[in-house]
Each structure stands twice: as C-alpha cells, then as structure tokens.
Amino acid sequence: MERTAFALLRSLKGTTVTVIDDHGRFEVFTRASLDQLALEDEPVDQADLLRQRTLYAEDGVTPLTLDELAGSRALAGEVVEDMLVCVRAPDGSVRYQRVSAAPDVEDDGSGRIRGAVILVRDVTDEHVLALREADLRHRLIDVINHQFRTPLSSILGNIELLEDMEVDLPPAATTSLARVLAASRRLAELTREVSELVDLEAATHATYTDADLMHVLRPVLEAQQRGARDRDVDVTVDLPPRLTALVDRSLVARAVGALVENAITHAPAGSSVTVRHARDEDTLQIIVEDHGPGIPVTDRERLLAPFEVGSGVGGGVYGRGLGLALAATVASAHGGRIELGDHQPRGLRATMSLPRRPAPRRTPRR
Q1: Helix (H) and strand (E) counts for the chain?
Q2: Shortest CA distance to 230 belongs to which of 185, 265, 178?
Q3: Per-residue DSSP letters for 257-326?
Q4: Which fold has domain 2-122?
Q5: What CATH architecture does domain 209-355 belong to?
Q6: Is the pTM of this model over 0.70?
Q7: Segments of the chain with pLDDT less than 50
Q8: Contact (Cβ atoms closer than 8 angstroms) between residue 334 and residue 324
Q9: Nearest partner of 200 among 116, 106, 306, judged by Cα
C-alpha cells in the first residue's frame, strides 16, 4: 500500500514527496525534489538542506529558520497545509512551492512521532498570475487616485475659491457655478467609491498560506500605534510572538489594520484601544476593543456593508466607512465572520473569527 501511495504521489505533475525521520534526516528524497529546490547534492537532513539552499518566506526576502520549516513543525506535532516557500536558484530564477507536512505517528498507541511526510507542489505559475492580478488592481487604484482625483481636486478648489470670493455674477452664471460645484463634488465622491470598491473586491481573493501572522501584523500595528499618538490614543497590543494559521496573511493584516484604524478614529482622546487574540484548535480570533461611542445593536449588521452610516450611541452620526466592510469581506473569504459587540462599560468590541484550517472553497464562475 505504501509503495502504491508513493508511486501515485510521484506521478502527480509538479508534486514531490519526501520523508524524514524523527531526527530530521531524509529517508526519501527524489530527483524531482532536487530539481524543485535547485540542489545538486541530496541533503542529509533539513539542516543540511538549509546549508545548501536558503529558503525564504512568501515575501521572498525573509529567510526561513530550521524550526520554521514544514518538516520541523510536523516533527513537533503540527499539521502544516499549503505553506508558501520561495526558492531562489543560483541562476537567479525564483520558484514558489506550496509545502504540506504531517507527523508520522507510531501506531502502537504511544503517540511517539517517528518522522514526517512532506509534500511539495510547484505553484510558480499560479503565484505569478496572482501577483500580476494584484498589480493590475493596484495600477487601477493608482490611476483613479492620481489621474482622476488630482484634476478633480484642482477643479473643486478653483470653483470653491470663486464661490468664496463672493463675486457679483449674473444669476445664470451663479446658478451654473453652483451646478458645476455640485457635479464636481459628486464626481469626486464617485471616484472615491470606485477606488474603494476595487479595493474591496480584491479582498475576496484569499490565497491561503500556512504561516506566522505576526510577520505582517507587527508592522501594521506599529504604524497604527504611531498614528494613534497624534490623537492621544494608546494602542495596546496583547498578541503572542508567533501566531500561525492557514490564512491569506496580507488580507488578514489589512483587515486587522482596518479594525484598529476604525477603533482609533472613534476612540476619545486620552483613551485606549486594545488588540488581543483568542484561539482554540479550530478557530483564531483577533479582538479589537475601544472606548468610543459604540454601535447600536440595530445598526451592527448593516454597518458591515460598505458605505453605510449609522446613529452613534448618545446621538450624532456614526460612520465606520469601508473599514468594517473590508474586514467582513476578508473574514468571509476565509470562511469566518466579524462580530460587533459591546465593550463594557463603554465602547465597541470587534471580533474577527477565522477558521485555522479553512474548508476548500469553489471559485465562482465569472
């Protein structure tokens, strides 16, 4: 049976299988694995592999340590799914591999891990395609922001200047000026909405990677902390040094950043915003709490949609804008959700719940 399984795995195009023992030594390492990793000599163990070839995280810059390799994590009892690894070959070419690994446990009931099985699938073409799609979206947003917004801002500025000058114009000209000003403001608002909708649509395309979220969350939260100081708001981060899950790291980082930014925006001066987490075997939660006006229960579901505005607790208009919608979209793309609740004695608690191992999703036909 094992021979049949290995023969099947080896027949899969672009997929290789390797096996390590409980000391990280390779028991099975094929010629195809050498080609995938651009190696000339078969490595003795995982440490030797890293001596021969530096492997990088999905950003292509951060080197992976021995403990971060999928095989090492499997030997520690973890099941790794679709970890994205970047391989830089000596000829300068770059390959992307998705690595899955699982511990091989003794079947005598002892629970002892005797090794690990590692599957590696080359995903360079699909990863490059995803990067190109992301680049096109960024270019579209850039065109909207600069090629449209810049002349619009100039038009609006000059029209408002004429309006403020209180020049005696014929009634017909005054009416025309008011209409041009209203149309320009509406066009500027439409431009903003199109830009944000493109950004929101991008949040539906989740690419799962088994990785440490803190690599991307840390710089986002540090930037939010710096910005919050200008508003006299303290952002307290209570997260562990390492937080692994099968998620789209960049999307989750943007969603958390949006939740924190919303909390800072509505937090009164001198108050604090807290970012913490909770997790179990199946679910990871990122929780953001503020001491702002909160959101009435009747408005919470609706404010998860883009461009919605609600009534703040205690009166006044309360608009969380696109931030909550972005976070809700990212959570939904992962099979999770956003929940809004009260933060006692005052404020909002926004909880993003994500499955640590999302169920496979079918891509809708377009």
Answers
A1: 11, 15
A2: 265
A3: HHHHHHHHHHSPTT-EEEEEEEE-SSEEEEEEE--S----HHHHTGGGSTT--EEPTTSSEE--HHHHHH
A4: Beta-Lactamase (3.30.450)
A5: 2-Layer Sandwich (3.30)
A6: no
A7: 1, 313-320, 360-366
A8: no
A9: 306
